[in-house]
Write a structure and sequence with these properties.
By secondary structure, the protein is mainly alpha-helical. It has 2 helices and no strands. It has a domain of about 90 residues. It is rod-shaped and about 125 Å long.
Amino acid sequence: MARDPLQTVLRLRRMDLDSCRAELVHKDTRAHEAAIVVQAAEARIQAEMAAASRLSASDAAVEAFGAWLPKGREAVAHAIAVLERAQQDAAQARALLNLARAAAEAVERMLEQKAVDATREELRVQQVSLDEVGLRQRPKPAG
């Protein structure tokens, strides 16, 4: 018996679904790593500020912090930009996964409907056969 083309389509849809899942994991991991970089950059600013704010801090330490702060803020801004891009990529991967899932489910529903239709047709053919047997076995009227 020939292989059902819908089975092949379903196999391809499932492969695409697996690929989309893997891509989403990758993108989510990148977004998580980017969030850690943002936190680290913000924490560094806080640590440097705390060090420069100590009563024991020298004027040179305060001046060094003032000179470094724009670079620290730039690092935070860059990290936030990378995070936002990674979050957008993850959202896009999530949307593609949803589309792939819907496509696979649609093929599954088509296969299920095809099976239901085949069962109905088989039952219809059996009923026609039973009806014919019943008609043949009916006693002929006397006459």
